[in-house]
Specification:
Blueprint (H helix, E strand, L loop, with lengths): L6 E6 L4 E6 L2 H7 L2 H12 L13 E5 L13 E6 L6 E6 L3 H7 L4 E5 L6 E6 L2 E6 L8 H12 L4 E4 L2 H4 L7 E3 L3 E3 L4 H7 L2 E7 L9 H17 L1 H10 L4 H7 L21 H7 L1 E4 L11 E5 L2 E4 L3 H7 L8 H14 L3 H16 L19 H13 L3 H5 L3 H7 L8 E2 L2 E2 L9 H9 L12 H6 L13 H18 L11 H12 L5 H21 L11 H5 L14 H12 L9 H6 L3
Parallel strand pairs: 1-6, 7-12
Antiparallel strand pairs: 1-2, 3-4, 3-6, 4-5, 7-8, 9-10, 9-12, 10-11, 13-14, 14-15, 16-17
């Protein structure tokens, strides 16, 4: 079947063996690829009860059938494993150029098992695969590791690596590729570090075959027209990057500030996408085959590099009470260098600031580190560095906000779902998005069903963000749709402009299938239910489908969303029923049979 290479690389680090296996094309048709196929492999091969940081856990790098093809944004890949942060299935998405290069080298994915006796890296040049010594790389930051490997293997290689955070088993560590791209969430970098695997270097000379090149050109043209004419993908994101959202979200009164104690930030303009473009932006930094080019490349003082994204600006900005955008750029830079998820890092520092404000964290806990006071730019930069190097209190911060707050006796100050930090939208003023937060299969997450699109941006239609009517159904549809997009190998941002029939058209042209838009979305529903079953087997029951007590019980104190709490208790039973699950949030036998699970 075109679109797929048809090969999976299996690397056992314990035995130092490498072998190539044929891709099961029937499973590929059923689960598409990326997030879907990777999760199916995890379910089949990894006991959900396994310790995430043990050699028995596996780390799966998986592309989609559209990765590496001439489709809009066809550069995504996923890292799938059991999460050391949440205990759920982890599936972290990244762009850049590494994913396409893996397919050009002749593989749809890599399954990594076991643990190396000492630090190693994997070098892939087409069908030549080596496990090499990485002792000279261990301890190095991401950019230095990448440069060393480029010098050793040629500038055109693509490198995915962990930084010191992954080596130190930080539960919020990322896998970085192309220096500034991140498979950021759920601690996938810690799993890579637990295997003593520093990096994967890839160079390929092949290409991805498509079933009908003429049809692909036709569908591509239609999709590109929609992307260019859409206000978000054609104007907002290309001009200001994802940080275009800062003022929009703040003006709606749902821009979390000081660890979600408030929902508006009076200095939002100072950290906005407009200010970023005016003062710090050097160039756009697009991913493979991306017409949107939302990526930013910025410079402040002697620091320059990829980012920051909207979520990062919020996490280190308003959530920490910081209005110094230059400082936020520096904190983002150190996240990239240390290999730390920017959302969890910034949100964990915000939680630490509230712990400090309320007297749980004392001066003596800080050692010689800067005070954790709201608005302290030095704190967000320095504690990010110490988080990556596991230095003093930084080692506790590196475990994420839930474990940090639990250590200091105030777990209620952790703004997490399933122990993963919530992103940059206060669900008290966006009721549908709150349903998505609570039910996310990987914990607190905005890209498992981006309800900001209809509730704030009005795409595909404008919904009343305070209304409860229809929100569970919308959340379900967005979750299923997103799962299928993640599996395909395209970027979620295309969904601002494209519908299910567009994705199905691309899949058909590339793979030679006869998929409808309804089929595409149902594939996503199959993936969502599979993830839920894995989580249930891992002991993550639906009691964890909830939000922090603050968001359920404490009304937003001021601003356009003043007085609102999230009304999850009214929405969750409806959501479960729409999913075909029982009252306890468990998929019924009939639903699993319907989806072929």
């Amino acid at each position: 079947m075109s679109g797929y290479i048809g090969k999976i690389l299996r690397v056992d680090l314990s035995s130092k063996t490498v072998k190539t296996e044929d891709l099961d094309l029937k499973l590929a048709q059923k689960f598409i690829g990326g997030r879907g196929l990777g999760t199916k492999m995890l379910m089949d091969e990894v006991d959900p009860g396994v310790d995430a940081l043990s050699p028995d856990n596996k780390l799966i790098f998986m592309t989609g059938p559209l990765t590496g093809t001439n489709t809009p944004t066809g550069g995504r890949y996923m890292v799938i494993t059991k999460s050391p942060l949440t205990g759920t299935v982890a599936c972290s998405n990244s762009g850049g150029y590494w994913g396409p290069e893996l397919k050009f080298a002749g593989y749809d994915g890599i399954i990594i098992e076991g643990k190396a006796a000492a630090p190693v890296y994997i070098n892939i040049v087409d069908d030549k695969v080596e496990i090499r010594d990485a002792s000279h790389l261990w301890g190095k930051v991401v950019s230095e590791t990448t440069t060393v490997l480029e010098n050793e293997h040629g500038e055109k290689v693509k490198v995915a690596t962990i930084g010191p955070a992954g080596e130190n088993l930080s539960r919020i560590a990322a896998v970085m590729n192309d220096r500034g791209r991140a498979a950021g969430r759920s601690g996938v970098g810690a799993v890579m570090g637990s295997k003593n695997l520093k990096a994967i270097v890839v160079k390929g000379s092949g290409k991805v075959e498509v079933a009908d090149a003429d049809k692909l050109k036709e569908v591509f043209s239609v999709c590109m027209k929609k992307i260019k004419e859409n206000g978000v993908t054609g104007q907002g994101l290309p001009t200001y990057g994802t940080a275009v959202l800062v003022n929009i979200i703040n003006e709606n009164g749902v821009f979390p500030t000081n660890n979600f104690q408030q929902a508006t930030f009076d200095k939002a303009e100072e950290i906005s996408g407009e200010t970023l473009a005016e003062k710090y932006l050097k160039k756009k930094d697009p991913c493979f085959r991306c017409p949107i080019a939302c990526g930013r490349y910025c410079e402040v003082d002697d620091i320059k590099g990829a980012g920051p994204e909207y979520e990062t600006i919020w996490a280190f900005g308003s959530d920490c009470g910081v209005s110094d955008l230059g400082g936020v750029i520096k904190a983002n830079y150190w996240c990239n260098e240390m290999g730390v998820d920017t959302i969890s890092a910034g949100a964990t520092i915000a939680a630490a600031m509230e712990l400090y404000e309320k007297g749980y964290l004392k001066n003596e806990d800080l050692g010689d580190g800067p005070e954790l006071k709201w608005g302290n730019t030095d704190a967000i930069v320095e504690w990010t560095k110490r988080m990556g190097s596991a230095d003093g209190l930084g080692a506790k911060l590196a475990q994420g906000s839930y474990r940090l707050c639990e250590m200091f006796g105030a777990p209620e100050l952790s703004m997490t779902v399933k122990k993963q930090e919530l992103p940059a939208y206060d669900p008290r003023g966006i009721q549908g998005h709150g349903v998505q937060y609570a039910t996310s299969n990987r914990g607190g997450c905005h890209v498992r069903g981006y309800m900001i699109s209809p509730e704030i941006l009005g795409l595909p239609e404008k919904l009343d963000r305070f209304s409860l009517e229809g929100k569970p159904a919308w959340a379900k549809i967005f979750q299923d749709f997103t799962a299928a997009i993640d599996a395909s190998g395209l970027c979620l941002f295309t969904s601002f402009a494209m519908g299910a029939e567009d994705y199905a058209g691309l899949m058909n042209a590339v793979c030679g299938t006869k998929m409808t838009g309804e089929d595409f979305v149902q594939s996503g529903e199959r993936i969502w239910n599979l993830e839920k079953v894995y989580n249930l087997k891992a002991g993550i029951d639906s009691a964890q489908d909830t939000l922090p007590k603050r968001l359920l019980n404490e009304p937003i104190p001021e601003g356009p969303s003043k007085g609102w709490v999230h009304k999850l208790s009214e929405l969750l039973p409806i959501y479960y029923e729409l999913r075909g699950w029982d009252a306890n949030g468990i998929p019924t036998t009939d639903k699993l049979k319907e989806l072929g699970l």
